[in-house]
Amino acid sequence: MSQANIQTKENRTEGSMVRFTTNQWKHLKKLAFDNEKQPAVLIREAFFKVYPELESVDAENIEK
After folding, report:
1. Is residue 28 part of a domain?
2. Structural domain includes residue 15
3. Structural domain includes residue 54
4. SS3 state at 63
5. Is residue 42, in this structure, part of any structural domain at all?
6. Which DSSP string corresponds to 20-62?
7. How many domains does the chain have?
8. Quick count: other Cβ atoms within 10 Å of Cβ 25?
9. pLDDT of 31-43, one tens digit each?
10. Dihedral in degrees, nearest 10, Cα atoms 16, 25, 29, 5
11. Cα separations (Å) of 60 from 5, 21, 54?
12. What is the residue range of 56's domain?
């Protein structure tokens, strides 16, 4: 077992629950830095723009 473990899948990062390629992750981190936010916050805001009804569900759960 002296051989290296060769991965067959595209190089992925473990930066978030969403999988990005390394170049996508670098670009996302740059966008987040330019907007003075963390990448996860940027992803969350983009998600709520697509699904605005989920934002009110989140607020209801926090109030309980």
Report:
1. yes
2. no
3. yes
4. helix
5. yes
6. -BHHHHHHHHHHHHHTTS-HHHHHHHHHHHH-THHHHHHHHHH
7. 1
8. 19
9. 999 999 999 899 8
10. 80
11. 47, 34, 10
12. 22-63
